[in-house]
Write a structure and sequence with these properties.
By secondary structure, the protein is an alpha/beta fold. The chain has one domain: Ribonuclease H-like superfamily/Ribonuclease H (Nucleotidyltransferase, domain 5, 2-Layer Sandwich), CATH 3.30.420.10. Helix content is 34%, strand content 18%. It is built from 7 helices and 5 strands; from the N terminus they run E-E-E-H-H-H-E-H-E-H-H-H. It has a 5-stranded mixed beta sheet, with helices on both faces. Strand 2 and strand 3 form a beta hairpin.
Length: 194
């Protein structure tokens, strides 16, 4: 059997109280990526093979909101000291992806495209795409405890799977939650997403 791998990824982006409900519609609000977390996941062995984790300095709203920091655990100091520009982060991320396909839970691909456009990057924003595994989890995982409102960082917990936690809404935590939940459902004999 040929080795098959996929890159599961997640993003964290600038947010404020009420931003989700208003779809970031308030003046000056942008979904600027602050963190990209990813793992290369072997679809045959159901194991993680590699990881990617990078902080990004936002430019439109360079000061992180207290709400964002409480939600993600990512501090202004960490972003100021370790963050890179979005164009650099994107190039490093696509190098990590290599020839693999990508998969997210929800609208991370849309946010990636928004950030490509925001930074007027030469990569055509419509060229970044990935599979959204969210609907699969919400249908196939429903008998096991996944509800419609279950977010990526809570998937593993919803299924009773323990993972080493960083903090829910930290991109690397959330992507490991996706992988652990995928592994659990596959081991239960659920039909394959890929």
């Amino acid at each position: 059997m040929a080795q098959r791998t996929i890159v599961f990824y997640d993003t964290e982006f600038t947010t404020w109280p009420g931003a989700l409900e208003s779809n970031w519609g308030a003046p000056g609000q942008y979904r600027e990526i602050v963190q990209i977390g990813a793992i290369r996941f072997n679809l045959n062995t159901l194991e993680e093979e590699d990881e990617f984790d990078i902080l990004v300095r936002p430019v439109k709203n360079s000061a992180l909101s207290d709400f964002f920091t409480e939600l993600t655990g990512i501090t202004q100091k960490e972003v100021d000291e370790k963050g890179v520009s979005y164009p650099d982060a994107y190039r490093l991320f696509t190098a990590f992806i290599g020839a693999d396909k990508t998969c997210c839970y929800g609208w991370d691909a849309k946010v990636m495209r928004e950030n490509l456009a925001l930074h007027a990057m030469p990569d055509a924003p419509e060229n970044f795409d990935s599979s959204n595994i969210g609907p699969w989890f919400k249908s196939e995982g429903k008998p096991f405890g996944v509800e419609e409102k279950t977010n990526s960082g809570h998937l593993a917990a919803a299924l009773g799977v323990q993972i080493e936690s960083i903090q829910e809404h930290n991109a690397l935590h959330d992507v490991r939650s996706i992988a652990a939940a995928y592994r659990f459902l596959k081991q239960k004999g659920v039909k394959d997403f890929f």
